[in-house]
Amino acid sequence: MTHGMRTETHAPHFGSGGDWRDTAVRYALLPLRIFLGVTFIYAGLDKLTDSAFMKDAGSGSVGDMMRAVRDSSAIPALVDLSLKSPVGFGYAIAIGELAVGIGTLLGLLARLAALGGALISLSLWLTVSWASDPYYYGNDLAYLMAWIPLVLAGAPLLSVDAALRSRRRQRAGGYR
Fold first, then answer.
1. Which of 1, 18, 71, 86 sits in a 20 to 30 Å window from 165, CA-based?
2. Alpha carbons 36 and 51: distance in angstroms, whole number
3. Phi, psi of 59 (to 5 degrees)
4. What pLDDT is recorded for position 11?
């Protein structure tokens, strides 16, 4: 049996030295980055601007929400920790979501931002949405899985990280 080299039959596209498939691969994580970044910025701002949420008790408060999920969570000790200062926990989650969203959207410390998003999603899955039945009704698990590709790949294109990496390469004479 004879093996030959494969030759491509399609023409390059988008002027980047590769075809449209190469371009699609390079930009594949960008929609995920935009979605997660915008969603986490929105979630953080929504919490910070909701006067009912940032209270120890009352309808829609973070305190009442955490008390309601305490007995059905996978790790009740995490909920107990949040209940020591529900308002402080609410601010921590909101500011964390805002920081993660901004970092992800801008591609600034993108892997660290994605890790933060994954940890927020993991903690919310183990506490707030753990009792969802069936499990796929709880969106925090899906968010956790969505963060993993960004933890692994970072933000290689259209990001502050990529610009800084390019600048370092130029200063080092192109060897990196």
1. 18
2. 24
3. -60, 125
4. 44
